[in-house]
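Need tokens for this chain, all 636 residues.
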Amino acid sequence: MIAGHHGGLPNGGTQEGELHHRLRHGKVPPDVVLLPDADIKKDILPPFRLNSAEHAGFSLAFFTRMIFSCLVDADFLDTEGFCSPEKKTERPVSDPDLIPKLKAMLDVYLVELAKNAEPTPVNLIRKEILAQCRAKAELPPQIFSLTVPTGGGKTLSSLAFALDHAVANKLRRVIYAIPFTSIIEQNAKVFQDILGREQVLEHHCNYKEKDDPEETTYNRRRGLAAENWDAPLVVTTNVQFFESLFSNKPSRCRKLHNIAGSVIILDEAQAIPTEYLEPCLAALRELVEHYGCTVVLCTATQPALDDKSNLRMALPEIREIITSPQQFYDKLRRTQVHFIGALTDADLAEKLDAEKQVLCIVPTKPQARALFERLQKEEGVFHLSTNMYPAHRRRVLDEIYARLKSGKLCRVVSTSLVEAGVNLDFPVVYRAMAGLDSIAQAAGRCNREGKMNEYGELGQVYVYVPEKQPRMPWLKRCMSRAAETLRCLPDADPLGLEVMRRYFELLYDIQELDKKEILRRLNVLTRDLYFPFRDIAGEFRFIEDDTIGVIVPVEPEAEVLVRELRYTEFPRATLRKLQQYSVSVRIRELAALEGAGALEMVNGVFPVLRNLAAYREDVGLSIEGSDVWNPEDLVF
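Here are the structure tokens for all 636 residues:
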């Protein structure tokens, strides 16, 4: 562990090149002095209590990473204090009363919010949900679920529970782990407006620093806090949170010891990738049982993470915060779901053209573009997919919001990117057959504000089987398990709690809940306690590295950043800003763009789209059109 405090935790074992091998075979440099075994007193490091023998190896490996985190963070901070004392003075001084202060600020905000809120049925339900969350906050640290339907005020209620619970149990911080960056930006903004920007650390890859001179101090302090999560409220991604727990790199492991003693809110808990589900559950159990954490599984579509019949690492007893969740689902029902069978693309386009305001969600980017091309071309028809760079998507979404609000024609074809963190409100939604959790998310974009209920109407959600079935095995499995669930419970609400529970039980009844065999490899206990830290860190990837970001300098700001990228010695900050103008493509797509001469590789590393005719304002990046140039772009 000490030997890896610069290069990362190595694999254990006697293979040549590893520390164990060098020590065992006397291959230690002559100037290195081996110290005798240390006599660590129990009051300094008390004996570590293992879980059951079945998972003892995992517990020890997790403990090793936690100790490694303490070591590398202390080393970084000590080095900083010596080499950069000015940076050390900018780090926040620990304040034991900070969490109670933030709770008091939230209390003031919630009192004002309640005072100004109209006594509508939805607001009365949100008030009751908030009251139940605050009442349960006095309970000791454990694993909770917070099952609240879309529109039930989950964001503020979960924050109130977290701060109240942290104060009641003297916990150190609140960590929100969220699967979608769109939700992160949205939630972080809400929290910052209430608690102050300095108290909320927003840590994710799409975070965009402002270049204003007055922002310099804030950016610097935020960067310092992001290194080790020394902040009272951290808003981050599932990727950042879970991959750090299985990392071996000093920079990513620094934060781990600061996770101890935290309230961890897992928003949209069902979004944990299934192939990594069991190691993730094992990590959550460790944090609760050994490191003083509370975990809250927060979602409208609660997964069956305590299903011991299918999950080897099923969570122990999960305590639901809401006394009777189904009553709120019944009261907040805003949609009617219809399963309408197979539709050709032509029939689907005809149905969409007949609606004034309609959203259609399809499984893949090619399907989204093909359906969009079939729609009547008139003002108010939009396409959304990740073939559009983030800043472009936000601009289109702003136009969609405006047209919906003003009652103008608005037809949107999108991939599933709109199913979370995007507060669209359509009277009609079409959704290609998918998992029931995805269908529920799509329904959350229909009659979202419940305005149709005031006229005795419900939003209409139509689930259809697409003409071309998705080829991805996982999507096919979700579709088949959804169909099987509906056959088992034909008379139940297709988006109700009973149906959703059964769906996840069927979904988790597979062998690939630990596709990389993380648990098995960490649970192999040898006499010398060898753990494959480096191998595990390299393989535990929520998002496989088979894509690369292509920079699209359509906007002037992007072109300025590309020029900056050419000459900067440290490109990391510039690349972070350029993420707002980048489209992720697969390696074969990158090769097609290169083959068509559409790219420039800046500094031989960073792909920049130079044939801007390959980027369309309506659909974004068009790989097949990359060899067609705008003549004006060829004139110099």
